[in-house]
């Protein structure tokens, strides 16, 4: 009997290793998101291109992100984690991480390196607000204003303190009916340095200072609760300016063609992104890690901006955003000259107390 000795080249060995890894990956992946246009942007930018490379993968969508915390708690108690990847806002990610329901990770191991060679940790920077959070997009709460209501001889409002300047810019304002963002803007416009806002707001005196500043425009405010309120108030000409989410203003400006402009100064950044549930088996975890490596690269994050007007969470993606969308992105350098990053941990600690004060102030 003759035996043939087979020498495996490094290429062949890599191929064998690749098959082995593939065999350890699940072919099913359940992704949890928000539905609608945002989920469609994820489908187009991440999932469909990934499935083109991995046709064996079956992705199931679950539109339960708004219930992610409660449902993951229940799954954990039952010992049956059915989700593989969950899209959540940053504050929910922090809660899930603190409760041990989301997996901690090392950014430079799990996330793709930047196209320019920048490490993932540096490219995402401060937007990695939790050891468990994989930031995906940045959206902001900012102001829109009626361009046809700017007083004759006045420049269009471009600074946050224009909100409090009733002499130069008379008319109604629309503000969200909660303390978050309003208190920060009030302190900024009362002379508090940006890096001291939350230190000041942590004190009773600082809270009173913010409410006193808001008092100066209180009689001219229409308070909103739903994201659609300010765009409608602007479209109807009932307010001169109002706060809302930048994606809502994009719709009013570009889709409805209303005479509305954006005021980006001191826009408050907020985040949306992924967490990986704690407790996945090895095959499912390998699949999710492979998908995340793909979905967090520089080009993929930029690609999502083709479908929705939210900015990519990594710096190297910003220059790749389609030109016709850049002007609507909170992360575009032209719009991000003076941004304000929402402090999730502060509001987790102080929300109940400050909210009680704010609601009492509203009722006065």
Protein architecture, described:
Strands 1, 2, 3, 4, 5, 6, 7, 8, 9 and 10 form a ten-stranded mixed sheet that branches. The chain has 364 residues and is of the alpha/beta class. It contains 15 helices and ten strands. The N and C termini lie far apart (98 Å). The chain is globular, with a radius of gyration of 24 Å. Mean pLDDT is 90; it is low at 1-23. The protein has helices at residues 10-23, 36-53, 68-78, 90-98, 107-110, 120-124, 182-188, 197-201, 204-215, 229-235, 246-255, 282-295, 298-304, 323-326, 344-363; strands at residues 28-32, 58-62, 85-89, 134-146, 173-176, 221-224, 241-245, 260-275, 311-312, 339-341. β1, α2 (36-53) and β2 form a beta-alpha-beta unit.
Question: For the terminal residues, how far apart are their CA atoms?
Answer: 98 Å
Briefly note the structural class of the backbone.
alpha/beta
Order of helices and strands: HEHEHEHHHEEHHHEHEHEHHEHEH
Fraction of helical residues? 40-55%
Overall geometry: globular
Mean pLDDT across all amino acids? 90
Give the helix tally: 15
Q: How would you summarize the topology of this molecule?
A:
Layout: H1 10-23, E1 28-32, H2 36-53, E2 58-62, H3 68-78, E3 85-89, H4 90-98, H5 107-110, H6 120-124, E4 134-146, E5 173-176, H7 182-188, H8 197-201, H9 204-215, E6 221-224, H10 229-235, E7 241-245, H11 246-255, E8 260-275, H12 282-295, H13 298-304, E9 311-312, H14 323-326, E10 339-341, H15 344-363
Parallel strand pairs: 1-2, 1-3, 5-6, 5-7, 8-10
Antiparallel strand pairs: 3-8, 4-7, 4-8, 4-9
Helix pairs in contact: 2-13, 7-9
């Amino acid at each position: 009997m003759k035996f043939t000795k087979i020498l495996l080249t490094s290429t062949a060995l890599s191929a064998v290793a690749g098959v082995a890894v593939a065999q350890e990956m699940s072919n099913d992946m359940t992704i949890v998101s928000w539905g609608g246009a945002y989920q469609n942007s994820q489908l187009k930018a991440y999932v469909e291109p990934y499935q083109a490379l991995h046709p064996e993968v079956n992705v199931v969508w679950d539109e339960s992100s708004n219930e992610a915390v409660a449902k993951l708690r229940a799954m954990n108690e039952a010992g049956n984690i059915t989700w593989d990847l969950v899209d959540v806002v940053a504050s929910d990610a922090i809660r899930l991480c603190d409760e041990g329901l989301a997996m901690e990770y090392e950014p430079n191991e799990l996330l793709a390196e930047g196209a320019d060679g920048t490490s993932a940790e540096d490219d995402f920077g401060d937007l990695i607000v939790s050891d468990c959070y994989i930031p995906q997009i940045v959206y902001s709460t900012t102001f829109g204003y009626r361009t046809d209501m700017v007083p004759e001889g006045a420049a269009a409002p471009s600074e946050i303190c224009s909100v409090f300047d009733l002499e130069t810019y008379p008319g109604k304002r629309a503000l969200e009916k909660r303390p978050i963002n309003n208190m920060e803007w009030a302190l900024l416009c009362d002379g508090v340095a940006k890096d001291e806002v939350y230190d000041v707001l942590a004190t009773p005196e600082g809270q009173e200072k913010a409410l006193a500043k808001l008092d100066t425009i209180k009689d001219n405010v229409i308070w909103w609760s739903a994201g659609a309120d300010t765009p409608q108030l602007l479209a109807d000409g009932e307010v001169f300016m109002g706060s809302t989410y930048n994606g809502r203003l994009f719709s009013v400006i570009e889709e409805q063609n209303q005479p509305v402009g954006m005021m980006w100064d001191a826009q408050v950044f907020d985040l949306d992104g992924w967490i990986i549930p704690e407790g996945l088996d090895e095959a499912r975890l390998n699949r999710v890690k492979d998908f995340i490596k793909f979905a967090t690269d520089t080009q993929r994050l930029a690609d999502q901006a083709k479908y929705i007007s939210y900015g990519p969470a990594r710096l190297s993606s910003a220059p790749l955003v389609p030109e016709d969308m850049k002007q609507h992105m909170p992360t575009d350098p032209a719009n991000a000259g003076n941004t304000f990053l929402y402090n999730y941990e502060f509001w987790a600690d102080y929300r109940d107390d400050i909210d009680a004060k704010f609601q009492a102030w509203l009722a006065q």
